[in-house]
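Let us work through a complete example step by step.
Step 1: write down the sequence.
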Amino acid sequence: MPLKPRAARPRHAASLILIRRTAKGPEVLMGRRPRRSAFAPNVFVFPGGAVEPDDYAARPVRPLDPACARRTGASPRLAEALAAAALRETREETGLVLPADHGALALVARAITPTMSPIRFHARFFLADAETAAGDHADSHELSDLAFRPLAEAQALALMDVTEAVLAAVAEAERPAPFLFSYRGGKPARRPLP
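Step 2: predict the structure and record it as tokens.
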């Protein structure tokens, strides 16, 4: 009997939902991943990526709120590295620089890619006000078609199911209740985080 292939271990990752409030309603910053990307090609995403060793050395001016850190499902050290990764990836992928104020971040979701996926992530989605960002956003080799989009427009883009769930939560409330997005029996499941 052939052995069942072992599921890839999820890498820790973080994304940042930058929200801009306008007279017509909120807008979020999203860009399209490269067509030849090994993971999630040609879909629209929030800036983000895997935690790197230097993220553990980041020194925030204010740490994550304790409840936010706990809901990441990570140790305090890893939680701060996740926040640092979200800010670093946003800078690298969009050109926008945010103060290293982890206390200004709110957790929207944790998401774990399905076990059958060859590339897996345990991602955390943080939310921050766009007014805290300095600089002008611009396309990069990792994100193109980068723009602040109204929520309804963003929800109509080519998206992964987790991005759809995160956008739905942001559309429901200004500060959405954090949730876990995972897969049970191959189907997406969303449940509140305590």
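Step 3: interpret the result. The radius of gyration is 16 Å.
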